[in-house]
Amino acid sequence: MFRVSIYVVLILHIVLVTQISLRVAAFSLRQNDLTSENNESGRTHVHTTPASKPLLPPEDGGMSHHDMPPISGLLRKCAPCPDTVLCVPQIQCPAHVRMHDHEKPQICDLPGDKFGYCCTSGQNHTVSNQNKARRSTLPLILPVDVLEEARKNFKHLMQDIAQIPVHPGQPDFTHGIMFHSTPQEDLHQQQLSNNALQQVITSQVFSKKEHVPVDDFITNNVHVKFTKTPLGRHCGPPPICRNINDTYRSFDGTCNNPLPHRSLWGAAGQPMERLLPPAYEDGIWMPRMHSTDGSHLVSAREVSRALLSDIDRPHSKYNLLLMQFGQLLAHDISQTASVRLENGELVQCCTPGGLSHLPPHQTHFACMPISVSPDDEFYGSFGVRCLNFVRLGLVPSPDCQLSYGKQRSKVTHFVDASPVYGSNEQMAQSLRTFHGGRLSMFDDFGRQLLPLTRDRKACDSDEPGKTCFKSGDGRTNQIVSLITLHILLAREHNRVADALAILNPSASDEWLFQEARRIVIAEMQHITYNEYLPAIIGPMAMKRFRLVPQHHGYAQGYNIDINPAITNEFSGAAFRMGHSTVDGKFRIHRSQKSNIDEVINIPDVMFNPSRMRKQEFYDDMLRTLYTQPMQSVDSFITQGLSRFLFHGHSPFGLDLAAINIQRGRDQGLRSYNDYLEVMGQRKLQSFGQLPSEVGAKLARVYHTTDDIDLWVGGLLEKPVENGCVGNTFAEIIADQFARFKQGDRYFYEYNSTVNPGAFNLTQLHELRKVTMARLVCDNADHLTLNSVPLAAFVRPDFAGNSMIRCDDPNLPVVNLNAWRV
Ligand code: HEM
Ligand SMILES: [Ca+2]
């Protein structure tokens, strides 16, 4: 009785503190540690099921959680989760958003004074609908008349519209290269995507006929099959894995999960996952285009103009190498592709020169062009009123069931160095020499560069002498600094293969190749989890999401139920935070002592890598990357991306900020406010809750706080402690990398009970010594680069960091002797 009354007092106290602090400070699109919101979620759950979730009163009987000093042993406050259930951050239990109070999971303590959930529903956002009764009037099998009507609609949409392509040489054409892989792969993707689009159109026809509520489609609660119809030609069971215990992961990511029906989880070409159900307006594929008050959302270009200006804010700690590694990593784990014309060409949605939108009868159904206002201070001066934008291609339903549109990612979702090796066997083969386990390289007077390619699409150019490179990823030539890291990793592969060959003179090419690949993937994973992620999301999120690599022994945590797929929220918004870290210029120092010798505008080195042929450029570029600060993650984007992206010979280019916003709407990302809720925080009720300047800016382009695009809201948050991004992006990114760790059987830290290709403990101990600094040193030309910052992602002038010579014994080396067999 005494305890209960203390609870009541405490709850009331927390309610008051929460309400007051919410009003005064906690939010702001700049929250860092929203302790009051955490109290809020704690309060709710304690209140709903007090017996099972006691929030022990603090010792002095009255202090709010907010006021409490951080204490170790937080479990004193919450009962631990039952043995078989993990305590996870709320975002990893998204089903809670759709649950009634009495259904919500038990709360539990996480590091950093945060609450989590003892989550039994896993990451399935639709879980709360599982018990929802199916509408008995809905047919179980797709009616023939629906099928026929949808077939006609689809044919009309595909064939009766004008086939207006994008022409080479235009910025839009270059944009298309971002979706490019091999011609065969592109064709295959188009066939699948067309089948998926036909399915989506069928869902739309069905939904209209049967008056299916939007909510039923977005929560996968329509169970109508189209098996044995032409629509179902791509559905069927996943491939059977012949050898589930292969030492080496497959190139396309198949057969990672050992359960037969999950053999495609994380594989190239599989759909992206979602944290929350899509915000498609029809529940099926119509993009988010309207405000919650019914009016049209303001054009993505208007939002970009109003909120995302170009101001130089160099990061005080991190350098451009962090930005560049981020882009390479993004390409490892995600690549979408837009819908194409019937003949495979890119779709055009605007009239020539972007002067206006195409008339409706000529407009492709995947068009979602971005409107430009006549008073646009930049595009207005060129008369541009329309920016081309085409929606993303989809994946057909594997189970022959009507559903909402699911976007496809073309590369392996895992962190597995797929930009180096490709995302399918054929690509991997085309990159190998089949001698000594090596990758093919182009020997440029003694310097090893990536092989050259004749594929015109790699660079969109016929210019004689223009050199473009080939790697495992179609986006390699996008910017010269990205090529630099591709070269670095390919060289690392060959360096390791050569060392292994010396240690094992009789080893086969295949063994040397696969072992070197296994090592390079482990190095990529270790640098990602040990150096890159902590810099981006900060140490607390690393701990809460169990992402910190171990110093000794094997890691635990593989979970057969975790789908490692990339989430739409991650690829469509959170990880695009990287676009804010790009500097519009590279300031190249030709030698370690000289002042700046050349200033390069980034659009000049996009799909134009000829500088790489200059003897010292590779070293110079690496030195520039680790010396020059990256830009801070904030609402400022360089005009190199927001006005001149891929401009080529045109006076204006694309606006990547507007593209990101439009992409989020295309992908059906919900508004920023909904993601606050999934993290257990209070939704924003009014712009007045924000710092006045931010609130006023947002109010100019959004009608209500429920309209804020996720990418925009996330960028406006203040960075988390010792990290680069705000809390919302930190959580979405942390969740994603937790999926990659828990859902990847071949993760480098797992032992042989989980990982059939596990390293032995001596090898693992060596791999944990790898650093970005070591990779740079081991793979430089050593023409102008002989030293690196010890913490390679940190500016060398940042207190505590320092330059270290590549031959300094204090720079750890991975000793490959552990691979002598
Ligand atoms: C020079 C710098 C960069 C340029 C020019 C660039 C350009 C682009 C372009 C054109 C797209 C496709 C946009 C669309 O149509 O939706 C894209 C997508 C993306 N970018 Fe960047 N980007 C750069 C750097 C970065 C960095 C540093 C990161 C992260 C740290 C990043 C993360 C992403 C992600 C996650 C996507 C979505 C990929 C997908 O799923 O298809 N980018 N970028
Ligand atoms: Ca990958």
TrEMBL record:
Biased composition (Polar residues): 35-51
GO MF entries: heme binding; metal ion binding; peroxidase activity
UniProt keyword annotations, A-Z: Glycoprotein, Heme, Iron, Metal-binding, Oxidoreductase, Peroxidase, Secreted, Signal
CDD domains, per the entry: peroxinectin_like
Predominant location: secreted
Residues the entry annotates as binding heme b: H579
Mitochondrion among keywords: no
Stored InterPro entries: Haem_peroxidase_animal, Haem_peroxidase_sf, Haem_peroxidase_sf_animal
Cellular compartments per GO CC: extracellular region
Subcellular location: Secreted
Record's keyword annotation contains Aminoacyl-tRNA synthetase: no
PROSITE patterns: PEROXIDASE_3
Region (Disordered): 35-64
Pfam family, one: An_peroxidase
GO BP term (any one): response to oxidative stress
Name used for this protein in its record: Chorion peroxidase
Organism: Drosophila lebanonensis (Fruit fly)
Protein's gene: LOC115625124
